[in-house]
Amino acid sequence: MKVRSLSLAGALLSALALGGCKVGPNYKAPTMPAPPAYTDDGHNGDWSSAKPADGVDRGLWWSIYQDNELDNLEQRCASANQNIAAALHAYEQAHDLVRENRASLYPTISLGGSASRNRASSNAPLRPTNAATSYWDFLIPLNISWEPDLWGGIRRQIESSAANAQATSADLANTRLSLQGLLAVTFFQLRGVDLQAQLLRSTLDAYTETLQLTEDRLKGALVPTVMFNRQGRNWKRPAHN
Question: Which of 7, 49, 95, 191 has most Cβ atoms within 10 angstroms of its Cβ?
Answer without folding.
Answer: 95
